[in-house]
């Protein structure tokens, strides 16, 4: 989930009664015996696709703005890429933008249209090129997620190697 969450960040989460999931929320999703932290992109009834890394929801493309000067030193190291672009993404229908990392062209940048059913949700990681999310079918990724697999709502960071991050709200609707 970098750049939103960093390696070794620890957070407090609400694990019950966190309300109806909303587009743009960061949520905890159960996948077998594992739990993943991902951003909710698609809601029940949405048609979703990715084209060259850009998210389209019901035919509307998310808005992207380059964020120059943000630290992005080792986000793409595992891919052997030394170039990373940090962008501010605003999803159609979402109230607030968030940061995403793009390490360049990737096989996950294009996803054919997916029509979500009445109890289906679509998640993406903020580090799009290194995320086992709804683009990747199980057991390695989340695939499309049913409501009963959404188990928590992260609130704020209580520990980080970067002490400045302690206390930062993860979601905006506490």
Report on the structure:
About 0% of the residues lie in helices and about 40% in strands. With about 170 residues, it is an all-beta fold. The protein has a single domain, classed as Umud Fragment, subunit A (Ribbon), CATH 2.10.109.10. Strand 4 and strand 5 (about 55) form a beta hairpin. The protein starts with 9 loop residues before the first strand and ends in a 15-residue tail after the last strand.
How many domains? The number is 1
The overall pLDDT, averaged over residues, is 89
Q: Determine the N-to-C terminus distance.
A: 20 Å
Largest sheet data: 6 strands, antiparallel
* CATH architecture level-2 label: Ribbon
Which class in CATH terms? Mainly Beta
Number of strands: 13
Shape summary: globular
